[in-house]
Amino acid sequence: MNSNNSIVSPSNGSVRADIFSGLTVALALVPEAVAFSFVAGVPPMVGLYGAFLMCFITAILGGRPGMISGATGAMAVVMVNLVMEGNALGEPGSYTGLQYLFFTLLLVGVLQIMAGFFRLGKFIRMVPRSVMMGFVNGLAIVIFLSQLNMFKSEGTWMQGQPLWLMIGLVALTMAILTIVPRLHKKAPGALIAIIAVSIFVTAMQVETQTVLSFIQSNGGTGIKGGLPSFAIPQVPLTWDTLIFVTPYALILAAIGLIETLMTLSLVDELTETRGSGNRECLAQGIGNFVNGLFGGMGGCAMIGQSMINISSGGRGRLSGIVAAGALLFFIMFTSQYIEQIPIAALVGVMLIVVIKTFAWSTFNIMNKVPKWDVTVIVLVTVLTVKYDLAIAVICGVIISAMIFAWENALRIRARKMVDEQGIKHYQIYGPLFFASTTLFLSKFDVSGDPDKVIIDFEDSRIMDQSAIEAINKIASMYERAGKRVYLVHLSQDCVRLIKRAEKICVVNILEDPSYFVGIDNYHQYIENLEFEAL
Fold first, then answer.
1. What integer pLDDT is reported at residue 272 of this predicted model?
2. Cα(26)–Cα(320) distance, integer angstroms
3. β-strands 69-70, 300-301 pairing
4. What does the pLDDT read at residue 3?
5. What is the pLDDT of residue 493?
6. Contact in structure between 417 and 425 (CB atoms under 8 Å)
7. What is the C-alpha R_g of the chain?
8. Which residues are bridge partners to 64 per DSSP?
9. pLDDT of the residue at 244
10. Pairing state of beta strands 424-432 and 156-157?
11. I want to staple 63 with a disulfide (CB 3.0 to 4.6 A). Which of 280, 348, 402, 403 is the partner?
C-alpha cells in the first residue's frame, strides 16, 4: 500500500479543505446510500437517514477524524435476510421486517459500545500486513464491481449510444479529477468534476442516467424527505424476538467493527497519524443505537467515502460533519437538484477512488516476500470479493497465525555433547510452545543417554502450558529409565509450574530469565513477586 502514500498527502488539512471534501462526500453518499438500501430491502429514505446519522455521530464522537461512516454493502447483505425473515414473522398489518431491523440495531449498538468499553479495538494490531493488503485490494475490486451495476438500465446492460455516452461522461469526470489537482493542489477536484459534468449534461440536454432515474429504476420515488423522527421499534418484546435478532446482531456488530477498524488502520497509514480504535467502537455503537431509534439502517465506516474525503484533503472532524449536514440539507431542501446529477459523474469519482485504494505495490513485492504472505494476500482478496470482509479478515488472521506457529515450530533445535565426566548436555535453541513440542521431544535419546543428562534452556523460551507438559514428559521418561536429568536456565515461574520436574531442576538465580508463562497461575505469580520484593 505504499503507493497510496504517494497519491494521498499526509497533510494536516484545513477548514477549507474539510468543507469542500465534505460536500464532495455528501454528493457521493446519496446514490450509495440509496443503492445499499435497495440491497437491504428497505426504503431509500431509511438508507439516507442511516448514512446521515452514522456520518454525523461518528464525525463528532469517533476516534478517527477524517473517516466517513454510513450505510454499507457489507452490512446490507446481512440485513436483507433479517428483513425478509422479519416480514415472514409479522402478521399482515402489524410487525414488519423493517421494525425488526431497527430493534436489531439497538442490540448491535449495545454490543459495539461494550467492545469499546472493554477496549477490544486494540486487537486490530493482530491483523498482519498481508491481510491488510488483501483487504484493501478486495475492497477496491468490490467498489469497482459495484460501479459496473451503474452501467445497467432497468436490470439490463446498456448498449449502443447510451453505453458510449455513459463511458464518455465517466472518462470526462476522471480526466477533470486528474487534471484539476495538478493545476491547483488545494482545489476540490472531485467536487469540481461532479459540478462540471452536471452543468455540461444539463446545458447540452444530454439523455443519461441521473440520481433520480436510478432511484426510480429500483422502485423508489426520490430523496425528498424531512428530519428523521424518534420512534421505538414496534416488535413484540419476547424471548422469541430476542432469540431471533441476536444472531443477526452479533454478525452485524462484528462486520461493522472489523470493517471500521480496518478502514481506521488504512486512514492512519495514509495520513501518518493515529486514531483511537476503542473510541471509534463506542462511536459506532452509539451511531447504530441511535439509528434504531430514528429509523435509519445503521452502518459502519466506508472505505470508499473515506478515501474520497482523504484524497480531497479532508482531515478533521469538520469534513464528516459537513458531509452529514450537507446530506440532510440535500434531503430536505435541494433534492430536485441533487436528483439531476448524472450517475456517470459519481461513477467517475468512485473509479478514481478504486485506483487510489488498490495496493498496486502488491505486484512489486510478489517475488520479494515469503510465498505464504503472497498466498494470504490473494486469499483475503478473493474472500473479500466473494463473501464479505469479516470472513476474509478472520480467515486471513487464522491462516497467518497458523503459518507463524508452523515456521516457529521448526526453529526448535538441540546441540548435543558429552563432557569429560560422561554427562550428556542438550543445549536447546528456539521457542518451545504447543507447535514445537513434538519436535522437541524427538531430540532426546532416553535409552541411549548416560545416567546423567543436563538440558540447558539458556537460548530457549518456554512459551505456554504445552511446553511445560513437554518438559514434564521428558523428565518422566528419564525417571522411568532410572536416569537423572537436570534442567538449567529455566525461569523461576517455570520451575514452580513443573510438577514432576521440580525436584530435578537446577536453577541459577543470577542467570535465569524471569519471564512469566501466561497460564492459570497468574495471581499466584504476582503474589510471589510481591513477597520476594518484601
1. 83
2. 9
3. antiparallel
4. 43
5. 67
6. yes
7. 29
8. none
9. 92
10. unpaired
11. 280
- Per-residue pLDDT of 279-336, as tens digits, reads 999 999 999 999 999 999 999 998 878 988 988 888 899 999 999 999 999 889 888 8
Assigned C-alpha cell, 526:
504476582
Nearest to 105 by CA among 39, 60, 49: 49
Phi, psi of 9 (to 5 degrees): -75, 130
* pLDDT attached to residue 513: 61
How far apart CA 148 and CA 157 sit, in angstroms, is 9
Q: In whole angstroms, how far apart are CA 301 and each of 26, 73, 411? A: 14, 11, 41
Edge-first strand listing for the sheet containing 452-462:
413-418, 424-432, 452-462, 484-488, 505-506
Tell me which amino acid residue 359 is.
A
For residue 96, give the 3-state DSSP assignment. coil
3-state secondary structure of 392: helix
C-alpha cell at 29: 453518499
Q: What pLDDT is recorded for position 149?
A: 78
Quickly tell me which residue has 542438550 as its cell. Answer: 426
pLDDT at 14: 84
SS3 state of residue 44: helix
Question: What are 430's three cell numbers?
Answer: 528456539
Measured CA to CA, the distance from residue 226 to residue 335 in angstroms comes to 11
Please answer whether residues 504 and 487 qualify as being in contact, where contact means their C-beta atoms are separated by less than 8 angstroms.
Answer: yes
Give the residues of the chain that fall short of pLDDT 50.
Answer: 1-7, 509-510, 518-534
> How far apart are the C-alpha atoms of 408 and 468, rounded to whole Å?
17
DSSP structure string for 406-463:
HHHHTT-EEEEEE-TTS-EEEEEEEEESTTTHHHHHTT--TTTS-SEEEEEEEEEEE-
Grid cell of 38 as nine digits? 435497495
Q: In 3D, which of 279, 252, 255, 293 has the Cα closest to residue 58?
A: 279
